[in-house]
Amino acid sequence: MTNRCSFCTKPAEEVDTLVAGAGVFICNECVDLCATVIAAKRTSGPTPRVPLWEQIDDLALLDHLPRIEAVRDQVDDDLHGWVAEARRRELSWDRIGAALGMKRQSAWERFAE
Length: 113
Ligand SMILES: [Zn+2]
What we know:
The protein is mainly α. It has two domains: 1-47, no CATH class; 51-113, no CATH class. It is 56% helix and 5% strand. It is built from four helices and two strands. The chain has a two-stranded antiparallel sheet. Helix 3 (93-99) crosses helix 4. The longest helix is centred in the middle third of the chain and has 31 residues, at 58-88. It starts with 17 loop residues before the first strand and ends with a helix.
């Protein structure tokens, strides 16, 4: 599985650096963009918060949907990997479920392979 930036969805091979977070990744290009946005905000002051979906046309909105789904799938794959490691360490389904705020049975049904 290729890890992708959770912001721009570029695969690791297409960027210089991909930094991992909790189930998500950010590439060096998106970090640069964030730094630019933050710097601009410092000089212009606070701006009204308008959700992205209210700022884009229908085509851009539809284009965004599969990108969100790809990020969701990546987060889900990552979570499965972490739970598999917990099981490899012989942590109980009780403890895994408690960590995820679910019952033992729910954790087992979702993650047992
Ligand atoms: Zn990116």
